[in-house]
Amino acid sequence: MSRxxxxxxxxxxxxxxxxxxxxxxxxxxxxxxKNIRPVKLSIRNFDAWYGAKRALKGINLDVIENSITAFIxxxxxxxxxxxxxxxxxxxxxxxxxxxxxxxxxxxxxxxAKIDPVTIKRRIGMVFQKPNPFPTMSIYDxxxxxxxxNGIKDKKLIDDVVRxxxxxxxxxxxxxxxxxKPGMGLSGGQQQRLCIARALAMQPEILLLDEPTSALDPIAxxxxxxxxxxxxxxxxxxxxxxxxxxxxxxxxxxxxxYLGELIEYGDTKQIFENPRMELTERYISGKFx
Amino acid sequence: MPRLMDLGISSVSENLTEMGAIAQRSLQIALDSYFQNNGLxxxxxxxxxxxxSLEDEVGDIATEIVARxxxxxxxxxxxxxxxxxxxxxxxxGRYSYDIVNTxxxxxxxxxxxxxxxxxxxSLVRKAMGLGLSSLRTRDETTVEKLYEMDSTVxxxxxxxxxxxxxxxxxxxxxxxxxxDIRNILILRYLERISDHACYLGDCVFYLVTGMSSPxx
Lengths: 288, 216
Description:
Chain A is 32% helix and 23% strand. Chain A is built from 10 helices and 10 strands. The A-B interface holds A 243-244, 247, 271-274, 279-280, 283-286 and B 3, 5, 70-77, 209-211.
């Protein structure tokens, strides 16, 4: 989607652009992408806590623009916490805190002057379980974000709803029943509706937290194809427990364990020739 | 607790061990046949058929492992290398069969000099043994030695070919040509077996390091 939404825009003049990102820390970046492809998001010395429990420990990682990055690791390793930090959702959990830098196109998202709402507009998120707004129609589910942002132009909203549903590969299936409840769709369709809802806000980055774990293989396959097609327009980060899904769909893979980033590299390298023994053991099912 | 995939992997591993031993045995019989002048074509053919059947089996199991367990990392490299190694053993066996065929198709003349084949066969047997040992011990460093040996084998082959082409014109060509054709063919098959020993080293290098052999 190339069109720019008209409507109230959060004033970004207060954002501090970091012209010189510190290179003094050791940053994980996929080998193939090193110095070749632009970085969309830089995570620097990032820690997160739930109360006194440290969930992320000094994460340093660059997310490459217009690519798909998969976060893998056993339950509790911090991958969901990390992506929740990436659109400042983590801090909404009572007692949860974060420290460090997450630099989006040169702007530190964790700068005190940054309004988290601005970030959520630029970085969309789709969750494990499809969660359409239960009382809303298919159309309203997709249009909700626009309306909440004060956009009233009916023609514009119609166009965005259609483009978003097309982008989520759902348009052909629902174009004649846009006024039916979103909850009436199948699980796979509901998840694509949620993706359409996220796409309607024209995010630059889309975070997917185990988006297919509640879906059957056919629906999962559709989501994977969809995600693969999205990277030409945006940057995708996906959390998955499914090794094969990470191998199939992503360009880069990050393996996390006990809140630390263990290894980050080209997906082919991670799955064919991991550098770290821990990664090897996890992806080969030899863990524990 | 072993993984389900481990059953398939150990089955492939056992097949490769058996194939390596058969390939080595085939070469030994073919060379015995040459030096002792005894016709063992049928025996080598049987071994060659066994290699072919085992190669098919390795391919089948490897495919099943990929389909059922989606191997990654060392497992994936092992599967990929196994398919190639099985082919290498089968090809080596086939060259041994070509040697015994040549021996039986071109009858021996008593005056035929066996020195070149003797020299090269000793090297090729060592190369094959080294290749098998590197597979058994997962020693990726032997690939360099294998290529060194192969280089000597190539030199021996080219030298024999050159000497034959430029041989004495007064020699009895009726006798000489039969002997030389036979030797050149056998040297050529040995040279190919030596190449395959190098490929085996390449596979072990990839299997262990995840990278292509630097010689490739």
